[in-house]
Every structure is written in C-alpha cells, then in structure tokens.
Amino acid sequence: MLRLRFTMKYVARPMKVPYHVIFLTSTVNFVTMMLNILQAAAYSILIFLVIVIITGSVAFVLFRVNSCTTPGTVQV
Predict the structure, then answer these.
(1) Sign of the four-CA dihedral 47, 48, 49, 50
(2) Which of 3, 4, 17, 60 could lock onto 12 through a cystine, CB 3.0 to 4.6 A?
(3) Where are the transmembrane segments (predicted)?
C-alpha cells in the first residue's frame, strides 16, 4: 500500500497516468508474485509426494517380502 501511494505521488501524477492504470499494474504485479510463490510451493509439495510414494512403496514391498518369509526359508 505504501509503495502504491509512493507511486501515485511521485511517479504517476507528473506523467498524468490514470489511477486505474496504476491500480491495475500493481494488482497484476501482486498476482504474479503470488503465482510465483504458489508455483514454488507446488514444486516442493510435488517432490515431497514423489519421495513419500517411493519410500512408501519400497517399505510396503519389503514388509510384504518379510512377512511372507518365515525364518530359515529361502524366498524364491
């Protein structure tokens, strides 16, 4: 909000830029910033999910193999 006020006071009024243009550009900047943050968060969540799925499937397979074998027998 402070940045928007500064822009209106010192940058926009000498050039006679309409207020709605300034508001629109600042809104677009804010939305793109939020989208960048969301994209980074989505990538990290995706990587986390892939790691969890891989480790979970490996653990499940190991558990199944371990539970099927009885001590002293060879799993074929």
Answers:
(1) positive
(2) 17
(3) 21-39, 45-63
